[in-house]
Write a structure and sequence with these properties.
- By secondary structure, the protein is of the alpha+beta class.
- It folds into two domains: 96 residues, no CATH class; 147 residues, no CATH class.
- 34% of the residues lie in helices and 22% in strands.
- The chain is elongated, with a radius of gyration of 31 Å.
- Helix 5 packs antiparallel against helix 6.
């Protein structure tokens, strides 16, 4: 037995079009009572939703037939169609938000960073989407038991899945920066990070510097100042091409500093006849 009533309120914007023989005040006053106009629903938005128990003394549920009499039948039909469309769109949006995984391309860019924390070597592998956004990581270590290696591998897989489902890298950086456990201490092999309080602190500090430009997490200044080349003039189109084919994490956005000047080189691509 149904026990509750759910009332949903919508705000609708619609347009009616009428044809008039004469344009005067009398004709305009009759427009609202006419039912021969063309109706077009412009927008329907969810306004409010209320729930109450069935049979409540405050139950003032209106008869749908009475409501339909207050508006033309064409408007009622348009409203119902628009309402159904909104419901379907909301379901699709929720489905996309909850289930959309942006898988990595089969051939992708990325880089490998080798470093040593204490007596332990750590290899960080990254994978990127075509636009340079990070989508996966792998962490390899030595001098670790099989259990620790398996845990690190599965941890990296979990992080990769989160990135592919849309979790911002910032969230992981905030969660794992400054975590403390062994191995820790001096870092050798990374030009921007000199020490780390744990492997996770090192990994996400490196990712934050390379992909998010968080220079405040680095221990040494950047050798070359990075600048965004997305809004450069046509003179820097070559830099844009380089950006599309180069790992963003590897160059840490310092595209110009990594280039070799080939402006005076001429290559003959004509095939021999």
């Amino acid at each position: 037995m149904k026990k509750f009533i759910v009332e949903t309120y919508y705000t609708c914007t619609f347009k009616t079009t009428h044809t008039l023989n004469d344009l005067n005040d009398q004709e305009l006053a009759k427009i609202d009572n006419r039912t021969d106009g063309d109706v077009e629903v412009i927008d329907v938005k969810l306004n409010n939703r209320k729930t109450r128990k069935l049979g409540d003394k405050k139950d003032t549920e209106k008869d749908p037939k009475k409501v339909s009499k207050s508006v033309p039948s064409a408007v009622s039909k348009e409203l119902m169609d628009s309402k159904n469309q909104i419901i379907n769109n909301e379901k699709q949006i929720l489905k996309v938000k909850n289930n959309a995984r942006f898988k990595m391309p089969d051939r992708r860019k990325g880089y490998i960073q080798k470093a040593q924390i204490g007596d332990h070597k750590v290899y960080l592998h990254t994978g990127e989407y075509d636009d340079g956004k990070i989508g996966e990581i792998f962490i390899d270590t030595n001098k670790e038991g099989e259990l620790v290696k398996a845990m690190m591998n599965n941890f990296a897989i979990a992080i990769s899945l989160g990135l592919q489902y849309g979790v911002p890298l910032d969230e992981y950086v905030d969660a794992f920066i400054d975590t403390k456990f062994e191995p820790s201490g001096k870092v050798i092999g990374n030009d921007r990070i000199l020490s780390a309080s744990s492997i996770l602190d090192y990994v996400f500090r490196e990712l934050a510097i390379s992909y998010l430009g968080k220079e405040e997490l680095a221990h040494t200044p950047s050798i070359a100042s990075s600048r965004d080349i997305s809004d450069q003039t046509t003179d820097d189109k070559f830099l844009k091409i380089v950006k599309n084919i180069t790992s963003k994490g590897f160059v840490r956005s310092n595209y110009e500093d990594k280039l070799v000047d080939l402006s005076d080189v001429r290559i003959n691509l004509k095939s021999k006849s």
